[in-house]
Amino acid sequence: MFANALVLAQSAVELGKNGRYLPWYQLGLGLAQYRNGRYDAAVESLAQAEQTVGDNNQDIRGIARYFRAMSLFKQGRAQEARTLFSQEEARMQPLPKDETKPVADGNLVSHDVLIWWLAHKEAKATLNEPAITKP
Fold first, then answer.
1. Under a CB-based contact definition with an 8 Å cutoff, are residues 69 and 85 in contact?
2. What residue numbers bound the domain in which 36 lies?
3. DSSP letter at 102?
């Protein structure tokens, strides 16, 4: 299943390389690479998504950074991963006190912010696992 997602994500990046949704496609590719255990490639695709979007979409940037941190961690680069995670966590919109009510500043948050929050939760759990040591 994840292999199919990887093929589709690669096609999206290639077909959409000149379109305005390219950062989303690059993000999708990075997520598919991460889920397929291709951490080197994921780090590269996620960094490209961040670079392509710049400061225009904090959600893409945040999601990319959390998955890049997890990819770095899976490569045995725990300190670099934790630094990136901490930097992103400091700029992220705070999580709601009650997770069953995804509200920020009195308003329901967008699905993109929800994904950002879920990426944060997954990254936090992943970075708390025992660090992988490089041989």
1. yes
2. 2-127
3. -
Residue 103 lies in a domain: yes
| SS3 category, 85 | helix
Question: What contacts 67, CB < 8 A, 6 or more positions away?
Answer: 30, 31, 34, 42, 46, 119, 123
Token duo for residue 54:
């710049």
d(CA 67, CA 122): 9
| 96 pLDDT higher than 80 | no
Distance of CA 68 to the CA centre of its chain: 6
Q: Is the pLDDT of residue 3 over 70?
A: yes
Q: Calculate the average pLDDT of the chain.
A: 90
Structure-token pair, residue 98: 């009650």
Instruction: Output the domain CATH number for residue 27.
Output: 1.25.40.10
Q: Provide the number of structural domains found in the chain.
A: 1
Torsions phi, psi for 107 (to 5 deg)? -120, 145
73, 4, 61: which is closest to 36 by C-alpha? Answer: 4
> Which segments of the chain does DSSP mark as H helices, in order?
2-15, 22-35, 39-53, 58-74, 78-91, 111-127
